Write a sequence for this structure.
């Protein structure tokens, strides 16, 4: 009987250690996932900022092109 109790106690302790290790592993995995998620979000924000910058630049180029076309037209009319 003592031997059975000792075996059950040993098994319970092993299960508790196994559970604790699994919980530790899970917390480590969660931290890793959070770190990867933050990294992805940072990269997405940088990408969105780059897109906005490109759109702003393209818009400025379009306005300058339109202004230059208007100036060219006015010069052409003035020369005629």
């Amino acid at each position: 009987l003592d031997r059975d109790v000792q075996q059950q106690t040993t098994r319970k302790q092993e299960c508790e250690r196994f559970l604790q290790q699994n919980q530790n592993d899970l917390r480590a995995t969660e931290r890793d996932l959070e770190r990867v998620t933050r990294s992805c979000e940072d990269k997405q924000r940088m990408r969105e900022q780059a897109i906005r910058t490109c759109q702003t630049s393209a818009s400025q180029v379009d306005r300058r092109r339109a202004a230059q076309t208007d100036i060219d037209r006015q010069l052409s009319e003035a020369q005629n």
Notes: The chain has a mean pLDDT of 97. Residues 1-80 form one domain. The radius of gyration is 34 Å.
